[in-house]
Amino acid sequence: MNWVEFGTIAVAHLFAVASPGPDFAIVLRQTLKNGSFAGLWSSAGVAAGIGLHVTYCLLGVALLIASSPTLFLVLKMGAAVLLVILGGQSLYGAVREFKRRRETSEVDAEVFVSEAEQPSMSLARRAFLTGFTTNGLNPKATLFFLALFSVVIDPATGFAQQTAYGLYLVIATFAWFACLALLVGRPRVRLVVLSAAPVIDSLMGLILWVIAAQLLS
Which cellular compartments is it found in (predicted)? Predict the structure, then answer.
């Protein structure tokens, strides 16, 4: 194991995964909406998206995507459309809650908890797919992993060792977002955060739309 190489990859990944972005917004929204169960499955979806990026980098497909303007444009368009839809859902949820609070003249975060969808395989599938598509279609992730596997990792590094790096990236990504889901999903924390749910939903919706605009610029 080349520990210097691994350390560089680990630090670069830490900064990338910790920076606010669509993955963070999706896991946070899923957790606030339906609890830690949905947040954990969204985290697993994001980690699976990382696995997808790692796989095609190992196979050399990332270079093909990055070198094909048409293919890369299609990927960017798909990611932007997805982020616009997800951002619209967040803003719609914020508008509904602002309206409910205006009509009832009260802020009852417990209503959100009681109305949250109960854990089920259907919820798990939707949360997983949301996390997977959000990360898997992100062209910035494509470029990030292409840079890791073509610049940071020495060409002489064996396939098995590169695969080990990839497994670390998948596991570390899931661990990071799982911790976020478990923290925010705690009843007391969730109730406090949900008291500002409309504002948070509005901000997340706008952030997702800004990211979508950046992808198309």
Answer: Cell membrane
pTM: 0.74
Secondary structure of the chain in the HEC alphabet?
CCHHHHHHHHHHHHHHHHCCCHHHHHHHHHHHHHCHHHHHHHHHHHHHHHHHHHHHHHCCHHHHHHHCHHHHHHHHHHHHHHHHHHHHHHHHHHHHHHHHHHHHCCCCHHHHHHHCCCCCHHHHHHHHHHHHHHHHCCHHHHHHHHHHHHHHCCCCCCHHHHHHHHHHHHHHHHHHHHHHHHHHCCHHHHHHHHCCHHHHHHHHHHHHHHHHHHHHC
What is the CB-side half-sphere exposure of residue 27 using CA atoms within 13 A? 29
What pLDDT, in 10s, does the model give residues 133-168?
A: 988 888 778 778 877 777 677 767 788 888 898 899
What is the token pair recorded at 64? 């093909």
- Residue 31: C-alpha distances to residues 130, 183, 211 (Å): 12, 9, 21
Neighbour-count burial of 201, counting CB atoms closer than 10 A to its CB (0-12 exposed, 13-18 middle, 19+ buried): buried
Apex 169 CA angle, 200 and 69, nearest 5: 80
Q: Are 112 and 194 in contact (CB under 8 A)?
A: yes
